[in-house]
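Per-record layout

source: Pseudarcicella hirudinis
name: 5-methylcytosine-specific restriction enzyme subunit McrC
length: 337
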Amino acid sequence: MQIPIENIYFLLAYAWDKLKEAEFVNVSADNKTNVLQLLTYTFLNGSKRLCKKGLIRDYISQNDLYNGIKGKFDLTNTLKSNALGKGAAICHFDELSGNILPNQLIKSTLVQIQKIKIIPSLNKEISQVLIHFSEVDYIPVSSHLFSKARSGYNDPFYAFLLNICELLHENLQIESKSGKYLFRDFTKDERQMAKLFEAFVRNFYKIELRDFIVKREDLHWQLKSSLENVKFLPKMQTDITLINGNRKVIIDTKFYKETLQKNFNTQKIHSENLFQLFTYLKNQNNPTCEGILLYPTVEHSLSLSYYYNSHQIRIETINLNQPWQKIHEDLLSMILK
């Protein structure tokens, strides 16, 4: 399945719920030959915009030798260091600084891009950006740091850049023999693309269908038993639920290299997908709730419709290898037709 670079950019922007931030960066995908180039240009241009805007700063605790007295005076350690004779003291104080985790992750990613020469022609531009991070420490990047970096700061543009940092970190691997970095193209990873596709569709409808409530929904099993037994039932959560008045649509997204499965040379809908959606419809209280299984188009487009009592069940595909405006139109018409 080929997805144009421009469409990958839109998928990421919607999935991260950062469409406005992506538009601010204004990266043309026309001259980018692969996903890594796209991410690199986007990250660098976003970092430039960040520098013009100014790095966020926060108060960080300092425990240091200070000429004079500042904050809380540490008498014991000051006496041990013989600092008083020099007119100094060990003090505990808070200082406004840009040397905070979000900035450290952005700087460290810029340094990494420069070191491994993903796009050598950009090295000079990266050096110019790094000047603005002179007070920020370089740190080893690890996966657990990203959620920590986002938790204390509510800045959408920072979140957008940190998402790119994380995606680069997850997919850049060191080749053990040569020591060179290799980029694992996440668009060829079915598991990663399944997560991206689901988040993209959910946030697309959340942004574009303002008259609908769009969310993930926990459904309750319509089974009778004791409370002791109920706790053993598995959690049942939809990928996407759309609600507008009495109308309710449950969408289950799937991302496969093959949309249909073969059974004795006959193409069939993936049975487990249909069973899952059927279970969702049977275990909720809206008697006319619609269900949609949504796949990306691989070889052929599908639009199938079935009924169970008053529930309509549809099998739909969306062609991601077409101009973005047509993807936009097709996703809207799927719900509004």
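summary: The chain has a mean pLDDT of 86. Residues 60-97 form one domain.
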